[in-house]
Amino acid sequence: MKYISLNDKAPKVGFREAVFNGLAPDRGLYFPETIMPLPNLFFETIQDLTPEEIGYQALKQFVGDAIPEMALREIISDTLSFDFPLVAIEKRTYALELFHGPTLAFKDVGARFMARCLAYFNSKTKISNSTVLVATSGDTGGAVANGFLDTPGIEVVILYPSGKVSEIQEKQLTTLGKNTNALEVKGDFDACQEMVKKAFLDPGLAHRKLTSANSINVARWLPQMLYFFLAYKNLKSKGEASNVVFSIPCGNFGNCCAGMMAAQLGLPVSHFIAATNSNDTVPRFTVSGKYEPGVTIPTISNAMDVSNPSNFIRILKLYENKIQLLQQSFSSYSFSDTETLQAMQELYKKSGYIADPHGAIGYLGLKKYNGDNDYTGVFLETAHPIKFKETVEAILSEKLEVPAQIQELLDKKKQSHTIAGYEDLKSFLLGNSNG
């Protein structure tokens, strides 16, 4: 398997090089040169396969010969060591809960997979002191910090926007110490993401062997396909796998793009809905055909506060950069904080289900979809409600039980450095002598 740059001005690379590079030298995102659909028999018998087998069959072509079969199977088994339940909400409507991993967020899968791939590569090539540089709008930071904790030869540097993540999210990325450094940025997520991209291409930082654990990295992005395969397996076991529609709360569009990649592999999905908050660049694009990012708007669904989503270019590539082709299987809608809070109340009153703000936006996307009414709808619940404790408790007038892995963080002391711009980041990386 070779990966091309979507800017078309960089050499093709293998999986290992794409993972270590993060971003191509021409600032383009890496994308598989070829995509080979899985055989029909795989989908006909998927309900009989283990999650590990499903993961191996879905990912092996993208890894190629970079990791041998037994090692890859071991990595996938370790990555998928928790549940991904479908919870019935209404008739043929389900929440796909992706928050049962160690940091209670969907990003645990990608972070764990990537960490284990890097650990494998380092063990074989004796490369040491690589630096994983990552921007987070909320959940990525905690998942990456946990996924890479104590990984030999890896230092983690996490940039997060000051005052724009929840208290629990901040605790998850600022209290682990060891090989993790948290940088509190005076700016929004898009500013954090731009600094990360700039650092990759800075020759003055070449010795740091920088890579990214954002969903721009293929090892973070591609494993997210597995949610959709596992949901389909579950639906097929229930006899409800016909005419499936996924509604995905979207920020940087990695999860949505991964689902659409699963469809390219043959997963039977009728339609994808990208549900956003007030940061509505993509919903506007689907109407006007013009991609015009605005200023990032802070919302209660902070992990989706992204105005210029990196992965949308990959989605366009999947559909030959033709908006008419994309629109046949894709819709995108935006929702306000007021609508989000109302959806949280509606879910709780109707079914007793406690959704976080991001999951509630996924639910709203499903409700707004105008397609054939005879479909099975699945919305992604991407984070445990406890991560947005104040918002959820206030709107539902209910006290949430604090999971053990969160409780142990609450009394830990925050450890972070404050930076204002790129030069501060570069100074930190040059001064932090692990490179």
From TrEMBL:
Please give the pathway this protein is involved in: Amino-acid biosynthesis; L-threonine biosynthesis; L-threonine from L-aspartate: step 5/5
Looking up InterPro entries in the UniProt record yields: Ser/Thr_deHydtase_PyrdxlP-BS, Thr_synth_N, Thr_synth_N_sf, Thr_synthase-like, Threonine_Synthase, TrpB-like_PALP, TrpB-like_PALP_sf
Q: Coiled coil where?
A: none
Q: Which reaction is this enzyme known to catalyze? A: O-phospho-L-homoserine + H2O = L-threonine + phosphate
State its cofactor.
pyridoxal 5'-phosphate
Keywords (A to Z) from UniProt: Amino-acid biosynthesis, Lyase, Pyridoxal phosphate, Threonine biosynthesis
Q: Name one GO biological process term.
A: threonine biosynthetic process
Domain Tryptophan synthase beta chain-like PALP stretches? 96-369
Modified-residue entries (N6-(pyridoxal phosphate)lysine), positions: 107
Q: Which Pfam families match?
A: PALP (PF00291), Thr_synth_N (PF14821)
The terms under GO molecular function for this entry are: pyridoxal phosphate binding; threonine synthase activity
| EC numbers for this chain | 4.2.3.1
Residue ranges annotated for the Threonine synthase N-terminal domain, each copy included: 2-79
PANTHER family membership: THREONINE SYNTHASE FAMILY MEMBER, THREONINE SYNTHASE-LIKE 2
Q: Which family does it belong to?
A: Belongs to the threonine synthase family.
This chain's protein is named Threonine synthase
The organism is: Flavobacterium kingsejongi
